[in-house]
């Protein structure tokens, strides 16, 4: 969402045996905001990577998200004509109430989750960056205290941090899916070995 630039990203502690834990073993926060910051700028929806979503290709995840706010295709196209993701967000925030999809308040979080899934599914390097954060708490940090910043991130440690929460949910989903994928061949191999042993035992008995 469109917010004022904030502090630099938190860096992993070099003194800690875990890349995102401090010396006491507590999980550290990874803060992000500016899309051009390294290494965690890609977590911002303003980061420039195309996202294929619902049959359209958007220049950024911000464009893909904000397009869902429009009631009519003409309004959506007007939002998407914005040359930058920040301007697309500004255009969407400024819509008259009658130009906003009537169920937007109920559907916006689901849309954001699906947009994020598409973004990280389609870009391996971004997915690996997300997974590299381990168990760290991801926080979008703003400096201007307003409702948008407090909803999608935090200001002075206060806010719902919904973007950070959704990224952590997505990270957990990737970890779970990888574990399931790894377990399937192991189970298949175990079944094959059991079947072979059973067949061998039957052969011995028959002999």
Automatic annotation (TrEMBL):
Residues 12-21 have a biased composition (Basic residues). It catalyses: 5-amino-6-(5-phospho-D-ribosylamino)uracil + H2O = 5,6-diaminouracil + D-ribose 5-phosphate; 2,5-diamino-6-hydroxy-4-(5-phosphoribosylamino)-pyrimidine + H2O = 2,5,6-triamino-4-hydroxypyrimidine + D-ribose 5-phosphate. Transmembrane segments: none annotated. Residues 1-24 are annotated as: Disordered. Residues 32-172 form the NADAR domain. NCBIfam families: ribofla_fusion. This is NADAR family protein. It comes from Pelomonas aquatica.
